[in-house]
Give the backbone structure.
Amino acid sequence: MANQTPTFFIMTFVLVIHVIVALTGVWWAPYDPFAMLSGKPFDPPSWAHWFGTDNLGRDVFSRVVYGERFVLFPALMASGLAAVLGSAIGIILAYKRSWADLMGMRVVDLILCLPSLIVILIVLSVLGSNTVVMILVIAFFFTWIVVQTVRSAALSVVTEDFVTKATLRGESAWSVAFREILPNVASTVFVEFTLRTGYAVFFMGALSFLGYAAKPPTPEWGLMINEGRAVISAAPWMVLGPALALASLVVALGLFTEGLSETLGLTSQRQRAK
Amino acid sequence: MISSNESIVRVEDFTVDYLDRRKWINIANRISFAIEPGETLGLAGESGCGKSTMGFSLFGYRRPGSRVRSGRVHFEGLDLLKLSERELRSIRGPKIFMVPQNPASTLTPSMRVGRQVVETLMNHKIVANRKEAEAKTLQIFEQVGLPRPDDVFRRYPHELSGGQQQRVVIAIALACQPKLVVMDEPTTALDVTTQARILRLLDSLKVDYGMSVLFITHNLGVLAQICDRVAVMYAGEMAEVAPTAELFKNPRHPYTRGLIAAVPQLNRRNDGKEKLEGLLRRGELPNGCRFAPRCRYSDPKCFSESQTLTAVGQDHQAACWRWQHVKEATR
Amino acid sequence: MAARKRGNEVTIVSGARPLLEVQNLQIAYEKKGMLQREEPAPAVWNASFTLAASETLALVGESGSGKTTIARSIAGLMIARKGQILFNNQDINLPIGRRRRDLVRPIQYVFQNPDSSLNPRRKISYSLGRPLEIFFGFSGQKKRDRMTELLTSVDLDSNYLDRFPNQLSGGEVQRVAIAQALAAEPQLLLCDEIVSALDVSVQANILDLLKELQKKHGIAYLFIAHDLAVVRWLADRVVVLYQGRIMESGTPEDIFTGPFQPYTEMLLESIPEPEPDRSLLSASDSSADLLGDEGQRDCCPFVGRCPYEIEAVCDREAPKVQNVSKTHAIHCHIPIAELIQKQDSRNSGSDGSSAVEER
């Protein structure tokens, strides 16, 4: 940890703030986010309203605070699901190394060539856009990215003798994957998880901006940005508030992931005591 | 230490530490030795003794996280430890050539081997033009025993066997005609029959080119065959230095004795009398002789007084004040 | 007939039949491709040997000799294309996943590289415990006691249980690996170059340990090595391999005294002994490095390098087996008497004594 840059610590701090807000925001937000006319409409930021008010006089800051959980939790769920499924599939594929693996990876390459946002939009149009569907669809796409990364990390582990020993003990593929291989790719999995979370946040923001997820009056950031778009020249703070929140979350996740993977990458587990 | 002013390289009092997970570990402690012109000096020792890392440190390959605490490395009137990176670069290659353990790390994988030798010859201005360089390359390839030189010329490193790759590296070394060649376990990764052939090659080249060689390896058998003198290291310190024949006939330092006794031999069963016990634990070294914890001839003084090389015979030095006692006990 | 009780099994051990029988084994690395027109050349041709309980058979050869391939076949990591592998008279030429449970446990493998031998993210107690859990269903204190017992038998104390592999030296890791193999109470231990990556001073200790364990438990060792000197005092019998073929087999005595199979002779001359006598350097060497595209198939693999080669014979047929004695067999076209003559005149030509014992 001594090698970490100040940036890493700042980003970690920012993330912690986001998590706290997501978990507890509903209890200490200064105003009811749904209460119209808690202030004059289109009021600029002031001591009373830190992010000003929107077109219906609602306090933007409270709405941002409230909206954190609509972004962070679904994102975590989508990336969590992708991490779990993707790791399982990735490790098994690396371990089995059969022709199915080679064919499968070509299919994955194809899937990943598609412009994911557009495909997700199409799917959501067909399946209907609610949070659960959104999480599942995003998780589906991310799973395959995780499969690629984890499989590649696992490939260098499966050739190790201790894995061969487990095979020679007659252990099943799942037993070997979970007990022997997973602990050795855990850092890769975790880094993928945080990375995917950043993308998930971004995707969900985009989806709700386009109106595919939350519905008004939900204080979802993407939606808020869309709502504030029309009056951006008159009341830019309506967009700024949620945009800053969204951006800070995505950037913090990204830089946190970078710092994390550097630390983990530098960790040498193979130095032998002489 | 007999080192005339004509020594190719003279190392004095060299001490270097390495940073390992926030702790400074002493890798080499007050090492001194010299290499004479045309001589092959072997540097022996087991893993953890510091021979490889020291070999590289001496010639300016400083790993980040290392500090040279003291010492001088005299080469051609200069102290290598005081030179800048730029000055060192003009010495590495043409004057001092390093052959690492893995030939693949010296050879560029994406360039045909013939061209790599040609480039070296041209970069160091050893020849006048490309045509000369190519002719000389083929000539050197033949000298190092590569089969079908014009065929090998066009091959990539991965299209050659380990032994052949090592021959190419030796060819590049010869092309540079350096004063000193430092070899770090050059044959360890090779099959034993290939190793024998490479050693024969090195021996014949020694005669033809008169190169001085620092040969670093843990394999005592190899050292016995190819070196003129051998220096044995233990835990970063010099334990014994002697001409090869003398060292193997009359090893004086208890560690050397144990090491020689441990080598499996075809015609003699190794008895347990001189067996090396215990392990080198770098975290638990005493202030005195570093071998004391494992030494069967040690006494309390050994643990507190550090040892330096003292004469125990003609041109033969050992860092053990009890060497005479050891000599008597093992007569 | 002797009966030994192990765990809940009672194994009948026959005095007469060998534990392991390998017959006419041919093994090839099958390429996993869709378009496969030519069959890849075998890595092992027609290998046969036997191993009895409590015996050590050394497979010696350089890279490409096929020694590891044979071991991996016996273990079940590869299948032999032709030939038979019999263990306790049962056919085990099957991948490990298709072998019966009671044929998996008695064959254990110890690997070469201490850095990959144990799971670096797991404590020693985990690695030692797995075979106990899987083969005997041990758990809790019983498991822990047995692990301590196993560590003691390899001269390590119970403190090691809570350590991680990166805290152990190479020699200590190999000891744990041996203990791990012993945990299964094997009849056959496949030792694949297990001391090659260790310092020479540590090697001797491990080899002594192996001998002790063999005496105590009656385990048979298939000991793979590239260094003849290492197996000299450990093996009961030695098999020398070159490019997938057996060149010579016999007791260590047989192998190290003449007559020598020409490849074995070259191998012995190449071993650098810690005797400052330049014997290695002065040995005459007419062989050259081959570029590897001179692919040979059904002939003596030593063609092109053998100092005694007979043209139109050695490059046409596989070498014949000649029995020098009841225990000693040489695979060579040259009749033994002639071979002895040629080797004597060659050795008297070179100067200095060689590391090889005089007959």
Q: What stands out?
A: Chain B touches chain C through 51 residues (CB under 8 Å). Chain B has two domains: 9-95+178-329, 109-176. Chain B is about 35% helix and 25% strand. The mean pLDDT of chain B is 86.
